Give the backbone structure.
Amino acid sequence: MRLACCFLLGASLVLAEPPLSIRLAPGDDKTGYRRADYQTDSLSLARRRGSAIDLAANARAEHLGLPPLADFQVAAPNAGAIQLGRKLFFDRRLSRNRTMSCAMCHIPEQGFTSNELKRPIGFEGRGVKRNAPTLLNVAFNQRLFWDARERELAQQIWSPLLAANEMNNPSVGYVLDQLHADPHYRELFQQAFGEPANILNTGLALAQYQQSLIAANSRFDRWYFAGDQAALNAQEKLGFRLFTGKAACSSCHLIGAQYALFTDHQLHNTGVGYQESMQKTPATVTVQLAPGVQVAVDQKLVSTVGEAKENDLGRYEVSLQPADRWKYRTPGLRNVALTAPYMHNGEFLSLQAVIDFYNRGGVQHELLSPLIRPLGLVESEQAALRAFLVALTGGNVAQLVGDAFAAPVGDTTASPQ
């Protein structure tokens, strides 16, 4: 099964038996709404507490199944820079109206993405046209953004900070002025870099935090790289054989002899982008009014109150090469069971929906990747493949989430103080 460009699976799964106080799931997974005994899965702020961990040590450590960070890192892990980047990541005051932080689209307990939205909602309710990718193991990505327009984490951060529909800051200088006005930030930048905040060290601080979010030592790693035969069950082992054989997932989601990043770092056209761009808009859209209560609303009425989604041509928007239309970056699949919804546009809400799509052979058109083909997976094989992918969740994800819960949140309406 060819799982290119965004095979991000499963959702709302609690894996690796995290502590009860750290629940890896969306705030409300929307299941069971028709039951009379339905109870929300929301996590109250009072319970959203965690304990800080040594993120610098996590970045420097050897992680079973992953290569050394030194081969990919933006800079050697520095505890002061990581803590500064962590503070910046959770500070809502870094958006123009001081209400949005990086963490509001990359939610820690939701796999450092957003399980509850196909695509994030940005500044003052403005739509963002692509799914928020996970930040777990982002340091190992050779290309960033779905269209691969950036290669460096320290540069990447300025795109969401300045985007009109994301954090909406008018300029780099405007962001830096906010940091210079805050005595605590002045002190932290001086301690970490020996100089005031600037375009380079602000990006580097956020990159330092992101590159510390390394999560491996999954059950798959213990089975495949450490030889623990009991780490996977028979169904999961069958899923691995399908992944590397009949389903051909490993054609793009690579597994090496010493480590596995589950990506080829390339871009592919699976048909998802083509279908979204070329399909006709339905006459009605289903709107949920209350749990279990849905109505069909005329699309014309919706268009009068909502902003039309911008068309998305993928890599073409960067290269302007016609052959690059609807090509998107192949993501890694580690921790994929925590990072629904899937594909560059969040099109698929469940693991089964993604498997069904690839099993059908994607969407046929002239630019479809030659690697995409009907797979012929029967129901039991699909279940085995799902089980294998769930086994890719890192054993330390709950600790990283707990650390994020312990981070300070800048949320005052005034300028940073």
Q: What stands out?
A: The chain has a mean pLDDT of 88. The two ends are 52 Å apart (CA to CA). The CA atoms of residues 144 and 150 lie 5 Å apart. The longest helix spans residues 199-211.
